[in-house]
Amino acid sequence: MTTELKAPMGFGAVFASIDPDNPDYALLQRIVSRLIPFGTHAGVVVAELGPNRAVVEIPAEPHLGNHLGTVHAGAQFLAADVAGACAFVGAMATRLSAIGSFVLRDSRVAFRKPAVGRLRAIGTIDRDDVATVLSSVGEQRLDVDGRALLFDEAGVLVGKVQLDYVVTLVQEA
């Protein structure tokens, strides 16, 4: 499977159509919805994207399950990963042109209960880290912490995911 969007000039290049002075979060949501081929393949839907959080959903489909009839751990992690990345995009909407790369370096997953049915992941980015990236200038590498909470179809908290990102900034034109 291929994707229409590629970022040969860096992470922020994909978002060149976004006005940093007046970010269109609905347009950002449409862009990120098509950006990750594996997420599209698995049926991930970006349900909400804003400056403070992102919400993604994965459907209740047999191919996303495990042998116990619950949502597979890999599918849960995919939802958390996409939610965290989308939360970063929303938080950086006014500064996306400065982002050279955004990479997940490490994560920690705590599965609390078996997930059943449609899964919803709510991603957020540490507000202090957001402030640091937004105020930084010039080429540099920064650490950014994210978090995703996973809820099953009944609204039960089934997992917590800590996300450790590395962000590189590029010189802005």
Automatic annotation (TrEMBL):
<dbReference type="InterPro" id="IPR027961">
    <property type="entry name" value="DUF4442"/>
</dbReference>
<dbReference type="InterPro" id="IPR029069">
    <property type="entry name" value="HotDog_dom_sf"/>
</dbReference>
<dbReference type="Pfam" id="PF14539">
    <property type="entry name" value="DUF4442"/>
</dbReference>
<protein>
    <submittedName>
        <fullName>DUF4442 domain-containing protein</fullName>
    </submittedName>
</protein>
